[in-house]
From TrEMBL:
<keyword id="KW-0812">Transmembrane</keyword>
<dbReference type="Pfam" id="PF06078">
    <property type="entry name" value="DUF937"/>
</dbReference>
<dbReference type="InterPro" id="IPR009282">
    <property type="entry name" value="DUF937"/>
</dbReference>
<feature type="transmembrane region" description="Helical">
    <location>
        <begin position="212"/>
        <end position="230"/>
    </location>
</feature>
<dbReference type="GO" id="GO:0009279">
    <property type="term" value="C:cell outer membrane"/>
</dbReference>
<keyword id="KW-0998">Cell outer membrane</keyword>
<feature type="region of interest" description="Disordered">
    <location>
        <begin position="383"/>
        <end position="405"/>
    </location>
</feature>
<dbReference type="InterPro" id="IPR006665">
    <property type="entry name" value="OmpA-like"/>
</dbReference>
<dbReference type="InterPro" id="IPR036737">
    <property type="entry name" value="OmpA-like_sf"/>
</dbReference>
<dbReference type="Pfam" id="PF00691">
    <property type="entry name" value="OmpA"/>
</dbReference>
<dbReference type="InterPro" id="IPR006664">
    <property type="entry name" value="OMP_bac"/>
</dbReference>
<feature type="compositionally biased region" description="Polar residues">
    <location>
        <begin position="241"/>
        <end position="259"/>
    </location>
</feature>
<feature type="domain" description="OmpA-like">
    <location>
        <begin position="302"/>
        <end position="418"/>
    </location>
</feature>
<keyword id="KW-0472">Membrane</keyword>
<keyword id="KW-1133">Transmembrane helix</keyword>
<dbReference type="InterPro" id="IPR050330">
    <property type="entry name" value="Bact_OuterMem_StrucFunc"/>
</dbReference>
<feature type="region of interest" description="Disordered">
    <location>
        <begin position="237"/>
        <end position="263"/>
    </location>
</feature>
Length: 418
């Protein structure tokens, strides 16, 4: 399940940003990454938990509406520039102290203990992440004109997926911040101790008033037991018959199939191990863009130009910033292009017909360029990747339906040269 807040934080703290922070704090990049992997979901959960009570939601709303946050261009520089970073750390630390006045330093100390970075480095990371998180919340509040109640509802909707992203070792240290786990459902067969004897007697009296109901339930239970016994006997017979036959080896070769996590509520995706030239291996979802592309390239004599829709690429709302959830798909494309060094592509940005063309068209171009820049950052030569802004000029479906508009908002990758 996608999480707006956590995905935004992860998109800011890219691999390049982590390397820069490690250099600035004098830490190892691996330890800095470990600290952020635990800190980002823990901090986000702590802020979300403020919305669980009316008093906490009011405090959070007041901070978001009264604090002068950096404008969006400055946010992009918070990680890279020393002056911006130092100011952001100071601001974020102050905000953390106002939200958690009793334990303002506990998150940083726990992060340091968990990851192995120094307390000073953990304090810097905590303040910086808090500043970016609160600045993004402020932006959402202003852009969407959220009331206090709407903000609280939005935050509470992300509780479970964000909390589940916290490493178990760190979560054990931060019970005060992230709150207790969600209560388990009560098993009707074992009622809670709070049920009084009076309630039990009342239930017994009601059952006594309907003796036929009790006998009906007993009869249904006996029929169910008989059905299960007959099914079990049949299963034993079938198993015995099967075992008596000689085993045969399967002639179907499946390349390391695995099931992707079912995070969006749909059926799990089947992943297949794909071998690329040069010894590279990828685990790709069947029928995905990258899988179809790899299959096409592996087949000799493919005709170009050939268009593929980058169906598992997502961007932040009204933005050209690739979501953290979609980054692995871009990384797979990088690996495929490295395995086929003669491959040239054109990235085309498309939108639906809603909204102003003066906004949509440039946005489609910006998103195409964002993918190109990600490929270049991954080591792909600039001459191998071009872009095109298409706006709503090339729809795949009708713009009259929500499903059609969703199909039209896409990135196409055109194979121009093999």
């Amino acid at each position: 399940m996608a999480t707006l807040l956590l995905d935004h934080l992860r998109s800011v703290f890219t691999t390049q940003a982590v390397d820069e922070l490690a250099r600035a704090t004098g830490e190892q990049a691996t330890l800095t990454q470990k600290a952020l992997d635990g800190l980002l979901p823990a901090l986000t959960t702590g802020v979300i938990n403020q919305a669980q009570t009316r008093e906490g939601a009011a405090t959070l709303y007041r901070l978001l509406t009264s604090t002068p946050f950096a404008t969006d261009p400055s946010v992009g520089q918070l990680v890279d520039a020393d002056s911006h970073r130092q100011q952001a750390v100071k601001s974020g630390t102050a905000l953390l102290g106002q939200l958690f006045p009793d334990r303002p330093d506990r998150l940083a100390s726990s992060t340091a203990e968990y990851s192995g970075v120094s307390l000073g480095s953990a304090t810097t990371l905590t303040g910086l992440a808090m500043s970016i998180l609160m600045g993004f919340l402020h932006q959402q509040l202003i852009t969407h004109k959220l009331t206090e109640a709407q903000l609280a509802a939005q935050l509470r909707s992300e509780t479970d997926p964000v909390r589940s992203a916290i490493p178990a070792a760190l979560a054990g240290m931060l019970g005060w911040l992230i709150g207790p786990p969600a209560p388990r459902p009560v098993n009707p067969a074992f009622p809670p101790s709070g049920i009084t004897q009076a309630h039990r007697e009342e239930d017994n009296e009601q059952a006594a008033g309907f003796p036929w109901l009790r006998w009906l339930l007993i009869g249904a239970g006996l029929l169910l037991l008989l059905f299960l016994l007959m099914r079990s006997c049949k299963g034993d017979k079938t198993e015995t018959t099967t075992e008596s036959q000689p085993r045969q080896e399967s002639t179907t070769s499946v390349a390391s199939d695995t099931l992707a996590s079912d995070l969006d509520g749909n059926a799990p995706d089947v992943r297949v191990a794909v071998d690329l030239p040069g010894g590279r291996k990828l685990s790709l979802v069947k029928k995905s863009f990258t899988y179809s592309l790899a299959q096409f390239l592996a087949t000799k004599g493919g005709q170009v130009p050939k268009v593929f829709t980058f169906d598992n690429l997502t961007f932040e709302t009204d933005s050209a910033r690739i979501t953290a959830q979609a980054r692995p798909n871009v990384d797979d494309l990088i690996q495929i292009m490295k395995a086929y060094p003669s491959l040239h592509i054109r990235i085309e940005g498309n939108t639906d017909s809603t909204g102003d063309d003066a906004i949509n068209d440039p946005l489609s171009g910006d998103r195409a360029d964002a993918v190109r820049q990600a490929l270049l950052a991954g080591g792909i030569e600039a001459s191998r990747v071009t872009t095109r802004e298409r706006g709503d000029s090339k729809p795949l479906a009708s713009n009259q339906t929500a499903a059609g508009r969703q199909k039209n908002r896409r990135i196409d990758v055109v194979i121009t040269k093999l």
